[in-house]
Amino acid sequence: xxxxxxxxxxxxxxxxxxxxxxxxxxxxxxxxxxxxxxxxxxxxxxxxxxxxxxxxxxxxxxxxxxxxxxxxxxxxxxxxxxxxxxxxxxxxxxxxxxxxxxxxxxxxxxxxxxxxxxxxxxxxxxxxxxxxxxxxxxxxxxxxxxxxxxxxxxxxxxxxxxxxxxxxxxxxxxxxxxxxxxxxxxxxxxxxxxxxxxxxxxxxxxxxxxxxxxxxxxxxxxxxxxxxxxxxxxxxxxxxxxxxxxxxxxxxxxxxxxxxxxxxxxxxxxxxxxxxxxxxxxxxxxxxxxxxxxxxxxxxxxxxxxxxxxxxxxxxxxxxxxxxxxxxxxxxxxxxxxxxxxxxxxxxx
Length: 349
Prior knowledge:
Blueprint: E1 4-10, E2 28-31, H1 37-44, E3 48-55, H2 58-63, H3 65-78, E4 83-90, H4 93-110, E5 114-118, H5 123-128, E6 134-136, H6 144-160, H7 167-170, H8 187-199, E7 229-234, E8 238-240, E9 256-259, E10 271-273, H9 281-285, H10 293-302, E11 307-314, H11 322-338, E12 343-347
Parallel strand pairs: 1-3, 1-4, 4-5, 5-6, 7-11, 7-12
Antiparallel strand pairs: 2-3, 8-10, 9-11
Helix pairs in contact: 1-6, 3-4
């Protein structure tokens, strides 16, 4: 039997091109295995082989979605692939979104088995776990040695049409499908075992995890808005022209802090949006549409608010994980409290 032909998708980092400064790298097709592809070939043994590797920068893919998907589909089709694998992306947000997006596109357009892998908190996992098989990984590439064999084994099962077991058996993230399986012990015994572990303070894993929703109590109403300092915070990606801190258009790894002392209007010449995933034309024409500095300056002059804070905080909400967002908020919220800000207006796209 001949080996299954595998096409592997990786980003600019795993291809050895470079980091964020090369994230705009255009789609490129290489022969054979590249980077983690060598580990996949070893795990496939004599059953499959990576014949082509597609390399694409994370920013290029997410900012040129239509062109990128079209180019990649043609590359996969031209290689005569039997299997398509992307990643693993671990906890890299833009990479995860790209892996999920192109897997879904390949499956729909070419009808071949697809597979990716990522950490459960990756934005791509939340977006695609009910559409694709996504092998669960840790949050860093340190687990590449364990992630690749699991992905290779599941990819071969998908290629052969073998029945796929439950997520707990196969190692993929739950959400793709509910599959019945037989436990070794009856439910009553498992429940009692969990209860005893809980009572003893020992670790245990529930068989029915519940979603974890934050509960944030609202602050009391502002006593007198005409004396309050008001600050602006946005996930709409408004930045000074040129995006000096290179905040990513998707899955942002940072936030920006910018001084607006003496600024009454965010003009086309001075501000823009770094946000991807929507048409930025109107935000770039007048960034006040996303971050209303002009209106708040008017309120300030008319005495409707005490004053506008001299700094605003910004990031892009597109694909940015909840964990990262909470981290950013904790940092700049403390700065706002230290600056005695009483009111914060949050805006998005």
